[in-house]
Amino acid sequence: MSHISKIELEVNDLSSLRVACMRLGIEFRQDQGTFEWYGGRRECHHVIKVHEAAYEIGVFRNEEKGSYHLLWDSYHAGGLEQILGKNAGRLKQAYGIERVRTEAKRKGYHVSEQKIDQGVRLLLRV
Question: Per residue in 66-81, is it b (16+ CB within 10 Å) or e — as a string?
Fold first, then answer.
């Protein structure tokens, strides 16, 4: 059985999502319109393409909230989970890092990054 599920991540900034995708070596496809999953193709606004995977992630706009949410075929992840981690953890982390970097820079802070065993540490300086 196959199904599409939501990746628990609310996206408020497409630019940060685009940079997060570049960070992971995957592609953000603006306005692609449909994404590939086990059941075929489904309409969406934008797509995240992982070239090593059979399926894609659909990016959907929530007009009421002014944000975006991500859907993927979590049962037959088509190679996505192997690359992005369980529940797309690597994508969530990369997006979080880019959101912090964007907001910090907007407020005039200098941002540096350190890789640590548990992930990444961001250091902010005024």
Answer: eebbbbbbbebbbebb
Q: What is the mean pLDDT of the chain?
A: 92
Count of domains observed in the chain? 1
CA dihedral 106, 107, 109, 110 (to 10 degrees): 10
> For the chain, how many residues are written?
126
User: At 96, is the secondary structure helix, strand, or coil?
Assistant: helix
**pTM more than 0.85:** yes
- Residue 102 domain flag: no
Q: What residue numbers bound the domain in which 19 lies? A: 4-92
Whether residue 119 lies inside any domain: the answer is no
